[in-house]
Amino acid sequence: MSREIGLGGRPHNHVVLSPASSPALGAAANVASAGWLRRFLRTLGGLEIVVPRRWWLWSAGLSGALAAAGVGYLAAVDSRATPRDIAVVGRVSIIVVLVAAGLYAWTSKTHERMGGLLVMAGLFSSVWLLNGSDDPLAFSAGVLASGLAPVVFCSLMLMHPAGELPSPLARRLLALLAGMLGLVWPVLVLTTVQPPLQTPLLRCAPHCPRNVFFVGFSLADAPVLKLAVAVMWIGLAWGTAASVLRRARSSPAPRRHSLAPVSWAAIGYALFTTAELAFPGLGSHVAAELGSASVELLVALPLAILAGLGLERLFTLEADLKSSTADLAASRIRLVETAYAERQRIERDLHDSVQQDLVGLRIKLELAAEVTKDDPGRSRQMVAAVGRQMDDVLEALRSLARGIYPSVLDERGLAEALKSAARRSPRPVSVDARGLRRYPADVEVAVYFCCLEAIQNFVKHAGDGAAAAVRLRHEPTRLWFEVSDSGAGFDPDEPKDRHGLVNMRDRIEAVGGTLSVISSPGRGTSVHGTVPTG
Question: pLDDT of 112-142, one tens digit each?
């Protein structure tokens, strides 16, 4: 299997609709307990459709705004909507804050899945918050969806911040209670004239609009089912709070900071849910105050998630900055060591080749001078030999200079310099560098020597019959390059000396670029990277 070493990636400006990348389909497929539903969602998710990210953001924002406006209007014209003082503002705020938090999270690749879940929760809330409407059909639909509202909010807290359930225990808890509520709550709605339970957003009984889903008879054991629903809501709330608190204690610093505000929100949600359902006989004033506080908590919950996502980004950025600073310091040390080693190599090459040749030339010139009077013919032959040796010395100096800074790179640019290097290679190397222009000297030098190092590695390790290809492309704000070969490849996991790869990465990162190396035994090697040019 091929492995990738280094850094790389694509611009975060498109959405691919698939199980791995779509928050909606991926989360639904993971939570779905029915096998046929899971297979259907995964099949649907397999249809990969690439959509510009801004379209998703605009469409989600517009949908959320329209849903909030519709719910707010229906609550405004219904005098029975509760809580009376914030019936409209509370409902609109819940939808708007959920969708806005989702859009913010959706701008980050790390939190993309959580962003999709928040937007979905906001759109779902526009359905269950129809319980503030005076239209019988809309009100009945809102009541029917209200039973799953606690599942949705607890799911958001459990899935924060990665957008997925953190443990098998959390998945089992959510699947069990969601399945039971999905069975019991519709039965209660179908067999009761008024809403089965009183909640802060549903206190209109006994004067609520007509339940259009009522089947005409009531169950004898309805009180038992109502008690079961209340127990499940309370158990789900406290189970969620316990799970979030346990994760917050055991997580590393960035994740722990992210879970802190959600932990407080989870505890508050559990306390208010318990107070509302376990003590239904509270006075009207206390019930009204409790209802207003509960609505405010539902608004604060996505704000807590939003704050958690922001804190995780902040502390992750700080950790990345510290890591990058350490990497930069190590890279600078390696560059200094490499430069020192290069100077030693140049000194050694000059001493072992050019200096010795020059000493020999001096001796030959002295001998030629001694025999000039006695044997002019022999002297001319000796001077001619010195001239030929001088040509060899000049060629050695040119070869040494090419290793320091090739003149063709300065005079004719990156493409011609790499073509010249390819022509000197003892193995076949092709160069495709159409559309390039001149770049800053540090960019050209970094890319040239990185490609040259990759070519030299190919020559040394690729094996017989292998060929290499160098490709370069000019993009609007960066220069992309790749050196690939059909050679023997290598296993990145083997503990071998990777000094050459480290040098290449240091050169590219020194000019703000990124480098990746992909290789596997028998399948060749590909070195590709990008360097900013704007």
Answer: 899 999 999 999 999 999 998 999 999 999 9
